[in-house]
Amino acid sequence: MRRLGYLLREALTNIRLNRTTTLVAVATTAFTLACFGVFLLLYLNLRGMVGSLQDDIKVIVYLQDNLTAQGVTALQHQIKAEPEVLSLTYLSKAQALADFHAQFPDESHLLEGLGENPLPASFVVTLVPKFRSSDAVQRWSDRLRSVPGVAQVQYSREWIENLAVVIGYLELAAVAVGTVLSAASVTIIANTIRLTVYARRDEIEIMRLIGATGAFIKTPYLLEGSVLGALGAGLALLLLKGGFELFIDQLGPTGRFLGIETGFRFFPAHISFLMVLAGLVLGFLGSFVSLFGFGKVRS
Amino acid sequence: MIQLFHVSKYYDRRPALSDMTLQIEKGEFVLLMGPSGAGKTTLLKLLFCAERPDEGQILVQGRNVARIKTSQVPALRRTMGFVFQDFKLLPKKSVFDNVALPLLVQGVSSFDTRRKVAEALKAVGIDHKKESRPTMLSAGEQQRVCIARAIVNGPLMLLADEPTGNMDPELAGEIMELFKTINARGTTVVIATHNRQVVEQVNRRVVTLVQGKLASDEGAGR
Ligand SMILES: Nc1ncnc2c1ncn2[C@@H]1O[C@H](COP(=O)(O)OP(=O)(O)OP(=O)(O)O)[C@@H](O)[C@H]1O
Ligand SMILES: [Mg+2]
After folding, report:
1. Residue with CA at minimum distance from ligand 1 atom 7
2. Ligand 1 closest atom vs CA B9
3. Beta-carbon neighbour count of residue A222 at 10 Å?
4. Complex prediction ipTM
């Protein structure tokens, strides 16, 4: 217990004695983690958006015009029984026409000259969530096209596929950027700890000579690195939060003007917590590298 | 307590110690003599596991320190006290904290620490300076702090390298009396020195090294 107190006090003393290096280390760590945070924010928000778009995805199954009422009912039962289908509603030719008039009042005249209602009847199908990925939707639609009575199958494919591709790239970029910046943070903290160790090398030698174990000597430095990393991550979160609020402020009026409700959200609490934890782990790794890796402290 | 069998230690292919065979019994008081560069410090370092021998075997308290694992060195050092030629005190810590360091490292409770440090400081006669920083003390006083730190956890053996290095004869005499007292309580004491006066005053076993070789082994107790 007393030893733990001593080790903590030593770590804090180290931080206090090297105020400038500590500040620089925390600031640079914060900056690198903030860069990563921007990516993560973008990624999480876009993924959220895709998620809600996928929730909205509807597959429209157009029916052949010559289908009888019994045929429609039979087909409705058949489609409803598919495991992919969550729910479906029937849209008759008449309803389709009414919808068209309601949605495009200016273009109503386009259909008038044709005499007969050209719009086909359709089923609007909502899929079970796990079949909403673009692959699954495509597979199901392709299968449905060959069902007798079905004229055409449509869904808003491009939108989702494009976004999914963007997300895929973002994911790759986040991993790449995250790896590079994590390595940078580890290096920064490792160098800071190395400086501390160097400044206190006489003391470390004395500790060794009076019978301190390697673990006892190294613990304050591991603590110091962890604290620096966690502080850096905390600062990064503050920076991100500030930047995020500014961004939303800028976007707010314009977004409303365009009729878009900005769905941008900051990190939820558990992600923020994970960020700080990641900073702590990076800091710990930094000290670990400086103590046990190249140019390590002998024991 | 200490046994060396044909021990050699080389620095850059030049022997600092060569073919040393020596035995020191428990409770003995031994002075290591010899001109500068004879290998006295090297011998003490080997006993303290600060260096490893290149040839031969060394038994300390029945353990072969020539082969000891690095992870076992701290435990061995905790049974020894070492008085360094250059003191090796922490300049930013008080005398009390310096002397308490070996106890802290071993996880001794703060109650026992206070008692043991007080005893050690009293034994070397500087308990009135326990709040001072080592830098504010004279060389003789720093030497005593160093001795207090070496004896604070009741070591089985005490190794001292030139403990009277740059002291006037009177102070050197006092320090030697201190070592004799510690020895009288059962601690094995090995002191490296090239001070003839000290040798005569102490009147104990004297081991003389010349150019890394055992030149003579004589005196009281032989
Ligand atoms: N770390 C080292 N690297 C290279 N040579 C060393 C080292 N330590 C000691 N030596 C050499 O080993 C020989 C013995 O040195 P040692 O320090 O044991 O002598 P000593 O008897 O303690 O001398 P002194 O009375 O001056 O302290 C010397 O020639 C010295 O130059
Ligand atoms: Mg010497």
Report:
1. B11
2. 12
3. 22
4. 0.88
